[in-house]
Amino acid sequence: MRFYSLDKLINLHDGYRKVFKIDLYNLILLQVAGERYLLESTCPHRGHPISESDIDGSRLRCSLHGYQFDIATGELMVATEAPCRGLKTYELIYQGTEIGVML
């Protein structure tokens, strides 16, 4: 595994959303209410970009079909069509002034 830096901590703020492509991983880094989350960046239902999703409290709502996922765990909370798996989540790693992930 290797550390991949995603951004400097000074750049993060509530409402922050940024998509990253690292090898075969498509990720999105979010900050909501002071908490940071790293998730896969496409909805597992139909591959719609999560970057276009709405965030309501602790839930992320896919803007294509309305599927809702727990932002902290990735768990599927609401399926509007056929059920699908939850979003994959990744542990954030802090190194000095940077935030990243081990992949």
Short description:
By secondary structure, this protein is mostly beta strands. The chain has strands at residues 3-8, 17-22, 25-32, 35-40, 54-56, 59-61, 68-70, 76-78, 89-90, 92-95, 98-102.
How would you explain this protein's 3D organization?
Pfam families: Rieske. Belongs to the bacterial ring-hydroxylating dioxygenase ferredoxin component family. Keywords: 2Fe-2S, Iron, Iron-sulfur, Metal-binding. Its cofactor is [2Fe-2S] cluster. One of its GO terms (molecular function) is 2 iron, 2 sulfur cluster binding. This protein has no helices and eleven strands. Helix content is 0%, strand content 48%. It has strands spanning 3-8, 17-22, 25-32, 35-40, 54-56, 59-61, 68-70, 76-78, 89-90, 92-95, 98-102. β2 and β3 form a beta hairpin. It is mainly β and 103 residues long. The N and C termini lie close together (5 Å). The radius of gyration is 13 Å and the shape is globular. It has a single domain (3-102), classed as Rieske [2Fe-2S] iron-sulphur domain (Rieske Iron-sulfur Protein), CATH 2.102.10.
Task: Give keywords.
103 residues, mainly beta, Rieske Iron-sulfur Protein, 4-stranded antiparallel β-sheet, iron-sulfur
